[in-house]
Design goal:
about 10% strand; alpha/beta; 9 strands; two-stranded antiparallel ribbon; globular; seven-stranded mixed beta sheet; about 325 residues; about 35% helix
Length: about 325
C-alpha cells in the first residue's frame, strides 16, 4: 500500500474508489494496572497484519456510507477555494484549470502548481480503538481524493505503539519522531492539518506558528469546530488561554462535516476551516505584530501531552 515519493504533481481532486490522541491528556488512572474488582486487563495489541486488515475494512465501510462522499466533497471544495486564492496571489491564475475528472464522471477537478502536504496530529491508538481506526481510514481516503501523495503526509501521536508506527510506515506516511505540540509552520506550502478531536491548545499553537496573512492563507484545518469552542468556553477564558483562536474567529470560513448516526462519535463537532485572504487582509495590522508564544502556565485542564524536556516528567 505504500506510495513512492515522486516529483510533485499538480493537485487534482478525483473520485474515491468503489482513541486516544495527543490532543488529550490521559486520565490519571489510564495506563496503570487495575485491580481485579474494577475491570479485566486489556487484550494484547493485534499484530501489524491484523491492524492493516481491520483498517481496510474500515475504509470499505466508510466508502459505502452516507457520510463519506459528502465529507470528501466538503474538504475538496474548501481546498479548491484555498488554492484558487493562492494562485491569484501569485499571479498564476491562468494556470488554474476547471474540467471534468478522468473517467467522464463530470465532477469538477482542479489542477494547481502548488504541492499540497498533510500533517496529522492526535489519531490515537488506532490498533485497538475503532474510532481512531475510522479516523485514519478517512485520512487515507481524503489523501487519495485530493491527490496528496502519502509520502507528503506526516503523522504524530506520542501514544503510538511500535506496531502502529510500523503500520503507518507500511502505509507510506511519515511518522514524526518529535512532539511538535502543533507548532509547525507551513513554510510556504498549502497544508491540510488533520486534527480530529484534539485539545484546544494544539489548534492555538498551530495558529501561533503560522501567524501571518501569507501563512494562514495556506492553512486548512480539519478538526474541532472553532465555533463550538467559542460557544463552550467563556470569552475571557478563550481570550486568555487561547488568544490566537479568539483573534481569528471572524476571519475564517468553517463548514461542518456531515453528521450521520454511524459516525457520530467519530466525527462529531468536526469542521473544515480555511482562511480567505480578503478577510485576513482586513484585520488590523497591529494584530499580526503580537506573536507571543503560548505557555499555558495558568491554564487548567490543558488537554494536550506536552513535549518532554530533560528536566520534565511526562504529563
Amino acid at each position: 500500500m505504500a506510495a513512492t515519493v515522486a516529483a510533485p504533481e499538480p493537485w487534482r481532486a478525483v473520485a474515491p474508489r468503489k482513541k486516544r490522541s495527543a490532543g488529550r491528556r490521559p486520565r490519571r488512572d489510564e495506563g496503570r494496572v487495575r485491580g481485579p474488582q474494577t475491570e479485566p486487563e486489556p487484550e494484547p495489541e493485534p499484530d501489524g497484519e491484523a491492524v492493516l486488515r481491520r483498517l481496510r475494512e474500515a475504509e470499505e465501510d466508510l466508502q459505502i456510507s452516507d457520510f463519506c462522499s459528502s465529507a470528501l466533497e466538503t474538504i475538496t471544495q474548501c481546498l479548491r477555494k484555498e488554492l484558487e486564492q493562492l494562485q491569484g496571489l501569485t499571479g498564476a491564475l491562468g494556470r488554474l484549470k476547471l474540467s471534468s475528472s478522468p473517467g467522464g464522471s463530470g465532477e469538477p477537478s482542479v489542477t494547481s502548481p502548488f504541492t499540497v502536504t498533510c500533517v496529522c496530529y492526535g489519531l490515537g491508538n488506532f490498533a485497538s480503538c475503532v474510532t481512531a481506526r475510522s479516523q485514519l481510514a478517512f485520512m487515507l481516503l481524503f489523501l487519495e481524493k485530493c491527490q496528496i501523495p502519502r509520502g507528503h503526509c506526516w503523522v504524530y501521536d506520542p501514544l503510538f505503539t511500535r506496531t502502529e508506527v510500523s503500520v503507518l510506515t507500511a502505509l507510506g506516511v511519515t511518522v514524526l519522531s518529535e512532539n511538535e505540540e502543533g507548532k509547525r509552520s507551513v513554510q510556504g506550502q498549502p497544508t491540510v492539518f488533520y486534527m480530529p478531536h484534539c485539545g484546544t491548545a494544539l489548534y492555538n499553537n498551530l495558529l501561533w506558528s503560522n501567524w501571518s496573512v501569507d501563512a494562514l492563507s495556506r492553512v486548512l484545518i480539519i478538526g474541532n469546530s472553532f465555533r463550538g469552542l467559542k460557544e463552550r468556553l467563556l470569552t475571557r477564558i478563550l481570550q486568555k488561554n487561547y488568544p490566537y483562536i479568539a483573534k481569528i474567529l471572524k476571519s475564517l470560513e468553517e463548514i461542518p462535516l456531515p453528521q450521520t448516526p454511524r459516525y457520530m462519535d467519530t466525527f462529531n463537532d468536526t469542521s473544515v476551516h480555511w482562511f480567505p485572504l480578503l478577510k485576513l487582509e482586513g484585520l488590523p495590522r497591529d494584530l499580526w505584530a503580537s506573536r507571543e508564544e503560548p505557555d499555558y502556565q495558568d491554564c487548567e485542564d490543558l488537554e494536550i501531552i506536552r513535549k518532554q524536556t530533560d528536566s520534565a516528567q511526562p504529563v
